[in-house]
Amino acid sequence: MEYESLLGKRGRRASDQVIWDLRISELLTDILGKEKDEYLGALYLEQLDEKDAAVFRLNVFQDMLRKEVYDEVVKFVEKIRECMRILELEKEAYEQHKPGLHLDAALEYIEALESFHEKLSSVKIGSEGLKHFLAYLNSIIESETFRSMKERAYEAKAAREKIKVRVKIIGDKIKVWSYDDGEDLASFIEALFARFKGSGQVEEVKYHRTAGEMSHIHAAILEGAFGFFKEEYNILRKFSEDFPSIIDEGVRNFSKEAEFYISYVKFMRRIEEKGYPFVIPRFTTDGSIKVKGFYSPLLAKIGKAIPNDIETDGEKRIFTITGMNGGGKTTFSISFGQLSYLSKLGVPVPASEAMLPFFSSIMTAFPIEEDKGEELSRLEHDVVRAWNILKSANDSSLVITNELFSTTTSEEGFQLAELFLGELNKKRAYCLYVTFIPKVASLSYVISLVAMPSREEPLRPSYKILPGSPPAEYMAIRIAAKYQLVYEKLKGMLG
Amino acid sequence: MIQFDLLRLGKATRISIADDVRTDLELDKIVAVASNGDKLIAETWMNVLLLGETSEEDVRYRQDAVKDALAHRETVLKMYSISGDVLDRLRREIFFFRTDDPAVVVHEASRGIEIFADALEELITLLRSTPRFSSKAFSDLMESLFANIDEKFISSAREVAKIFSFDQGIDFSVKLGKYNSLIDPILLMPKEKGSLLSKIFSVGKEYTYKLDPRDEAGAQILYDIERWVLSQVASTILKAYNHIKEFFEELRRQLSFYVGAMNLNDFFDKLGLPRTYAEFEQGRFSFENLYCLSLSISRSGKTVPYSLEIQKDGAFAVLISGANRGGKTTFIKAVGQALLLARSGLFVPAESFYIPNPGAVYTHFLREEERTLSYGKFEEEVKRFRGFVGSLKKGDFVIMDESFSTTNQLEASVVAENVVSALIDSGISVFYVTFLQDFIYKFVTHYGDKIVLLVPERLEDGTRTYRLMRGSLQPGYAMDLWKKLHNSG
């Protein structure tokens, strides 16, 4: 039976621009840790082209999100990795250690396959990915080679357990005898001083070994021991000779690919611990978006994310986000961008409910630092980027821009926006347009979202982005607040 | 197993507001006399004096032991010094300079065990020549020591110490585990040299490996294996060492209470203070010629004694009011200190001392300075009171000095009435120095004979005696005076 990848189809690498603007690298650091595994790192940068490929992975996640499945997959992968590590060790080890290492790698492997197969067979698996692997495992376990390897491994293990010797170390000499009898000194001391009760506080002497457990000295002691246990040694040695290779190639691949799912579930759990949910996205075909309670995982990990909603029936597809400074506009658009990015990886997304199209592409235009040496000024840069976006945008593209055309007069900025958004609208593309120019929000084909101030303290943001018209003036509220003529303070004074 | 309990403190800890009680009742002065500069005595005394919970039975147990210790003064002092000397020797001679090196631990611990063997021998010899104790506390200690420590034990302990003190190499058994590594090392009793068994061994099959003198790495590994094997026994021998050390520490700690009692006894003798042990009697709170011990210590002499007789079932309140500098605070301190000494099982500076039960003592004294400026003084006071309300139990005593006087009399009286009524109705007795007239009037009227009102005595000619006498309410006195003046006008 052939092994089939747990990842399903592969995708294409996302553009550097998108990776940068949506802070995908930061997200990856959170998911994979600072020392990113190269293989997994590359996987997370691949965007899937087909909805079915994403659904294939999401189905695997559907299984993996069940604790009984997840725990078993994690255990299995850890065991296979341990097995690989032992086999690496064997290559460099002393002759007396080699048969031992080989035996333990085999024991680990046998146990891993059998227990994983047994546990997974007893729970209901829904995904093609895992179902296939289970069938594949079954074919290995049923094979004659595996059965005989198992039998011989247990025999070798029993032989090894019989070996027990008495050793004396004195000066630079080691003496080894077959063990006969002897009084345990620790038990003697324990019994002698038991008459002193003590407080029950135990101070353990923790010795950190300064040398490894495999060396020529250990080998010498083993050599002595094998001299007294010749038959047992032969059983051990023969096992290695008869079963030189242990791990199946498909199993090896699976344990590597499963890491993709494991790393992501671990990441989700960390965020969920802070009280933020993840959900498996559903892809709409009518152009609608309904995403509830989505948030920035980067802020959620420090418990500071404020969830928001975004919704359209598909008729209007351009969102403008205006409102107070520092009100969470950029976080809102990046978070939605990340969510869309993750949905194109085929992984659960940070939201409480997520229905959205399978975007064919995600494009971004965020402000760049102005480089005086560059030929193009920032404004020109913006225009060029806008045109590049328009060139490739279609009715399932997602475009996210942040303060595009902001380095000119607001009137000109509005005119440029009108042109850009008008074109996008014609192409029926989706767009989140963050701007400080309120007038943009009045375009007939846009949905206007506004970053709202805190109700209690109007000088502070609430980080809630809600549908509505951009406010005409913030200043009046500020002046009122300065004289404490605001709801909460007034109430306190009067109360 | 060696078991003894000279103090019967159980699991009780210091009361929640130990620091306040310590300051308010000037316990440092008393403890300084008892400890005579010995830190351990001071610590033990503070723990016992500020004990949160105790029973009549435990108090009697300690009273007997105190009497016994005073009678066996020399033996108790000698036991105290033997345990002190052995701990001193350990401090000077035993160094666990690396607790992660089993060889160091095993070596030092076994030397320590040698020192313990000497001290235990001395202790047993001393007790064998001592006349019998009469208290349960000391008899039990002696009995337990005799049952557990004998010549055989002492020689076995010395034997163990010897095994580890010379470089005889180590013997151990070992098995093969994962990766063919060595596992389950068990340190074995060395086979005696020249014995029949060891000869059979050397004749029989034996595998020998000798380290190449230039093999430094090999020497390091051998060093590691030795420590690894010793680590299996190191915790055990360290535990043995620690347990014996704890035995001496515990013995010394418990004895320190009684050594302190001897010191205080000497001080009473010097000043000629009376000495009595508390007696328990339901419905009776009374004492005769009770001295304020801290004031006697400060003055190095006897001060004005107090007497009081209350015969009343359940909780009561003693309100002390009247002119300043009349000895009111000294009175409540004397009562508080006596209660603490009594429940510790110690003698009290009085001719007689009867209490219904050994309840805990809580204090709430007006502070000259408030600790923070961010809260009003009154709030601070209320907060402080609230702090111990949760720990109060029926039968406890609350001693208050001008509580709630950081706000006006009218308000404070209402608070005081609320608080003190609640305490009494919950079975907690109160001693309260207060000037809150509204409170006193209403309270005495309402509670009647559950209340004792004390005022400073003044002789006809106006001189102060610093004694307190029972006072009574004089309702309408001011009105009468007003009318009188009005009429006279």
Structure description:
The complex is a heterodimer of chains A (495) and B (489). Chain A is an alpha/beta fold. Chain A has two domains: 12-161 and 245-262, no CATH class; 280-494, P-loop containing nucleotide triphosphate hydrolases (Rossmann fold, 3-Layer(aba) Sandwich). Chain A is built from 18 helices and 14 strands. Chain A has helices spanning 16-21, 24-32, 38-44, 51-64, 67-92, 98-122, 128-141, 144-161, 185-192, 216-228, 230-242, 249-273, 297-300, 329-343, 378-392, 410-426, 475-482, 487-494; strands at 12-13, 46-47, 164-170, 173-178, 282-284, 289-294, 308-312, 318-323, 353-357, 361-365, 397-402, 430-434, 446-453, 461-467. In chain A, the strands form four sheets. Chain A has a six-stranded mixed β-sheet, sandwiched between helices. In chain A, strands 5-9-6-7 form a four-stranded mixed β-sheet, covered by helices on one side. In chain A, helix 5 packs across helix 12 (249-273) and helix 6 (98-122) packs across helix 11. The N and C termini of chain A lie far apart (78 Å). In chain A, 39% of the residues are buried. Chain B folds into two domains: 1-31 and 51-173 and 180-261; 272-488, P-loop containing nucleotide triphosphate hydrolases (Rossmann fold, 3-Layer(aba) Sandwich), CATH 3.40.50.300. Chain B has 489 residues and is an alpha/beta fold. In chain B, helix 4 (56-71) packs across helix 10, helix 6 (102-128) packs parallel to helix 10 (216-271) and helix 14 packs parallel to helix 15 (437-447). Chain B has a six-stranded mixed β-sheet with strand order 11-12-13-8-14-15, with helices on both faces. Chain B has a four-stranded mixed β-sheet with strand order 5-10-6-7, with helices on one face. Chain B has helices at 18-24, 27-35, 39-49, 56-71, 73-93, 102-128, 136-148, 151-165, 196-203, 216-271, 293-299, 328-344, 377-389, 409-425, 437-447, 477-488; strands spanning 170-176, 182-187, 207-210, 276-277, 279-280, 284-290, 306-311, 317-320, 347-348, 352-355, 361-365, 397-401, 429-433, 451-458, 464-470. The model of chain B is unreliable at 370-375 and 475-485 (pLDDT under 50). Chain B is built from 16 helices and 15 strands. In chain B, helix 13 (377-389) links the parallel strand 11 (361-365) and strand 12 (397-401).
